[in-house]
């Protein structure tokens, strides 16, 4: 997946939490579109291309919000010293990790 970040943005926790409902909505919509497509699919190359197009559109939209896309349905909010980390379908923004540690080093925000 390519980096589609359009502008570097630093988020406070409050800003990230305020943006999260929009991120969740857009992600849920894209996720459901991909799931419906794959459920009805015959496994054709065209189906895979359509699913990839939906994912690419989601990634572009997340990048336009200033988020870092770290994987499928996984975004990071840069806070200047690391990332607030959210992965679909988590209900809230509960995790943080440093720049060096990545997803595997996530810790729960107190």
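-> sequence recovered:
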């Amino acid at each position: 997946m390519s980096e589609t970040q359009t502008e570097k943005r630093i988020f406070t926790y409050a800003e990230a939490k305020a943006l999260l409902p929009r991120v969740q909505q857009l992600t849920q919509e894209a996720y459901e579109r991909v799931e419906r497509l794959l459920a009805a699919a015959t496994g054709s190359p065209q189906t895979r291309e359509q699913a990839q197009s939906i994912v690419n559109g989601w990634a572009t939209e997340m990048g336009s919000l200033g988020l870092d896309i770290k994987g499928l349905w996984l975004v990071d909010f840069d806070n200047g010293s690391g990332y607030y980390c959210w992965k679909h379908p988590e209900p809230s923004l509960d995790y943080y990790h440093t720049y060096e540690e990545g997803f595997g080093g996530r810790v729960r925000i107190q």
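The mean pLDDT is 92.
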